[in-house]
Amino acid sequence: MTSKKLVNSVAGCADDALAGLVACNPNLQLLQGHRVALRSDLDSLKGRVALLSGGGSGHEPAHAGFIGKGMLTGVIAGAVFTSPAVGSILAAIRTVAQAGTVGTLLIVKNYTGDRLNFGLAREQARAEGIPVEMVVIGDDSAFTVLKKAGRRGLCGTVLIHKVAGALAEAGVGLEEITKQVNVVAKAMGTLGVSLSSCSVPGSKPTFELSADEVELGLGIHGEAGVRRIKMATADEIVKLMLDHMTDTTNASHVPVQPGSSVVMLVNNLGGLSFLELGIIADAAVRSLEGRGVKIARALVGTFMSALEMPGISLTLLLVDEPLLKLIDAETTAVAWPNVAAVSITGRKRNRVAPAKPQEALDSTAVGGSASKRMALVLERVCSTLLGLEEHLNALDRAAGDGDCGTTHSRAARAIREWLKEGPPPASPAQLLSKLSVLLLEKMGGSSGALYGLFLTAAAQPLKVKTSLPAWSAAMDAGLEAMQKYGKAAPGDRTMLDSLWAAGQELQAWKSPGADLLQVLNKAVKSAEAAAEATKNMEAGAGRASYISSARLEQPDPGAVAAAAILRAILEVLQS
After folding, report:
1. Is residue 476 annotated as involved in ligand binding?
2. Where are the active-site residues found (predicted)?
């Protein structure tokens, strides 16, 4: 079965993709009748060397994303994973020559089709009297024994685009650029790894991997790698990659050793999440620095993809200061990242967090018995939430991601760990404030934020008094904060429904002679009734509001949890 692609047609997808890039970039133009993109300011290159590259489509943003001042003059694109036509390559060479350039350098990845087609176009151009040179880039470090075909051209080619572009922008001649680029290319290596294959539009995946396998040393056209390894952690895979790339017994290794200075390029092969890319980048930095290697620059992103392949490649380029200046030179190419001209290694990466302000002694602290009672209440709340974990998760699966119980259990475990550190504050205001911070840090999710908001606001009225009217005011303040920032209202099928119902009953505490337990008992019953009523409500806020069905058959898990917390508090106070 072929994979789904957002294309207009399989046959026209390469043309459409290049047209889209040019349409959105005023610095680029298409060459009429050819799948060629060029700088729109070609006349400004008079007297300088032009740089042309290209290859099959499907590697975006390579190659057209690297057209611009300080990088490529133009790009010739083939169909997906197919070498471009000789006629189009020759047309591009003629175009830049007619603009007054003093020669053209063709930067070609080491694949048979590219070598043949670019080589033939070069010979034809030279026959017409146009000075053209060609460099073939092979940076693949996968093969321990070199084959006749040589090393494949991979993402390291992008660094060659940058170096050559900086030299050309500085006015360096064709022969000297060619010489320097060939030297740089020999000090570079790339290795790829993928979790699965990719699929050319209109075709099936190019290879299959089992769920516990990873492909090591693959190319950028969906071809299989040198071997398959078992799935492992990011740290382990990065270590394996770097070990392979720097192994001196590997004929295609990069001669990196302790004390070496490198540019590191972490490239997304197309389908890896940015989260995973960051994890890989961190692992690579730690692993290289652990080997005594200095990372002079780090480039992380998508530079040369293989359609939607979920994988990465690592490129290492040995550098000195003159080469770094070329890497750092200005470019207008849209796909080149804005990298600071500062070494990664040796930079301070952490800032000390500000110290927490010292808490003032609270005059409402009333001693040990109150603290013990607080501890009993909290322990009952924790045991209640832990017992409800699976039930709340089951309720949440109907409208959310099924983790409401897990989130509340995480809060319960965090509170238990905190209680082990010592007795809780006797002061209600200090207790609620500390619980707020704890839940914000440990509970997570929107529930953690909402409870944190509620407790922070509720603590304020209790700083002055701890009478029943003050507790009622605390409930009012908490509910107001939840509505202000959570945007929920009573009747929206959220945890607010239970708390709001309880809050209405607790208004009775503001009357002289109100009975604590009698009012609280009514409040708990109202909260439980409100929680049950949520199953007949249409969700107006929270994740459940995005469910297409107007009503959900189960009560809201957040409302059920809030009512259970209030029930636990009541039971301890009654005992």
Report:
1. no
2. 221 (tele-hemiaminal-histidine intermediate)
Interacting residues of 347 by C-beta distance below 8 A, sequence separation 6+: none
Q: Tens of pLDDT along 104-144?
A: 999 999 999 999 999 999 999 999 999 999 999 999 999 98
φ/ψ region of 100 (left if φ > 0, alpha if ψ in -120 to 50, else beta) reads: left
Q: Which residues are catalytic?
A: 221
Among residues 237, 249, 245, 236, which one has the least CA distance to residue 264? 245
Is 436 annotated as contributing to ligand binding?
A: no
Q: How far apart are CA 95 and CA 114, in angstroms?
A: 20
The predicted-structure confidence for 165-215, as pLDDT tens digits, reads as follows 999 999 999 999 999 999 999 999 999 999 998 989 988 887 888 889 999
Q: Has 5 been labeled as part of a binding site?
A: no
Q: Which range has the worst mean pLDDT, 1-5, 57-61, 559-563?
A: 1-5
Q: Answer yes or no: is 147 a known binding residue.
A: no
DSSP3 helix / strand / coil % (the chain, rounded to 5): 45, 15, 40
The answer on whether 343 is annotated among ligand-binding residues is no
3-state secondary structure 80-119: ECCCCCHHHHHHHHHHHHHCCCCEEEEEEECCHHHHHHHH
Round to whole Å and give the CA distance between 132 and 74. 14
- Whether 244 has a binding-site annotation, put simply, is no
Phi-psi region of 445 (alpha: psi -120 to 50; beta: other; left: phi over 0): left
What pTM, to 2 d.p., does this model score?
Answer: 0.77
363 against 480, higher pLDDT: 480
Using the Cα atoms of residue 175, residue 176, residue 181 and residue 182 in order, give the sign of their dihedral.
positive
Burial class of residue 405 in the structure, from the number of CB atoms within 10 Å of its CB (0-12 exposed, 13-18 middle, 19+ buried): buried
